[in-house]
Amino acid sequence: MPQLRPIDTPPPGGENGRVMAEPAETPAVKLICGMISSRRELFDAAGEVLAAAFGPIEVAGEDMDFDFTHYYDAEMGTPLYRRFVGFAGTFDPAGLADAKLRTNDIEADFARRFGSETGPPRPINLDPGYVEPAKLVLASMKNFSHRIYLARGVYAEVTLMRRKGGWQVLPWTFPDYASGRYDAFLSAVRDRLLRPAGQGARP
């Protein structure tokens, strides 16, 4: 029977064997924000506020029906629509919690400005996240088994993985993200992240 090495014993290799990984550079990612509203005219207004907070909008998705769930109907009205925006430049992923809290503030401001006592109290929903070459990460204020705590009540989850040339779902992926409806937008953002300056789209 072969001799077993204790689990706390470093692997062989002497000075050439590294036991502890060294810090790597922060990965370059692209900040995005998903918007949901029953009032499509608010997308442009919210886009202006988001651009003031996070920088110029580099790519915007088309308006789409948001019809995979009725979870938001009572507080937001119906029918609901969805639009995504992506921001120019790269984003430090360590700032995702701050981005989520900032979008919460923007939501609250829109509720004061555009909410109604007789209508839906929440005129817009803002969901920030980021795209990196291998995945889509979304921020959330809700804890769950697959989410990792960031800071100040904000959690993060890997919602989609990029594998074999496409976006792959996970067991917890939201049905709308799993549908593939947003893949074109996410790929366009990813392409801008990977594209060298001055070159066209990657194949």
Structure characterization notes:
The protein is an alpha+beta fold and 203 residues long. The protein has one domain. The chain has helices spanning 41-54, 73-76, 96-114, 175-178, 183-194, and strands at 30-37, 57-60, 64-65, 81-87, 125-132, 135-140, 148-151, 154-163, 166-169. Strands 1, 2, 3, 4, 5, 6, 7, 8 and 9 form a nine-stranded antiparallel beta sheet that branches. Strand 5 (125-132) and strand 6 form a beta hairpin. The longest helix has 19 residues, at 96-114.
Strand content: 25-35%
- Pattern of helices and strands: EHEEHEHEEEEEHH
- Overall residue-averaged pLDDT value: 90
Secondary structure: helix percent: 25-40%
Overall tally of domains: 1
Main sheet: strands, sense, barrel: 9 strands, antiparallel
Label the overall shape.
globular
Ends apart, CA distance between termini:
52 Å
Determine the number of helices (DSSP H or I, runs of at least 4 residues).
5
Secondary structure tally: strands: 9
Radius of gyration: 20 Å
Q: Pairing-aware structural class of the strands and helices?
A: alpha+beta
| Stretches with pLDDT under 50, minimum 5 residues | 198-203
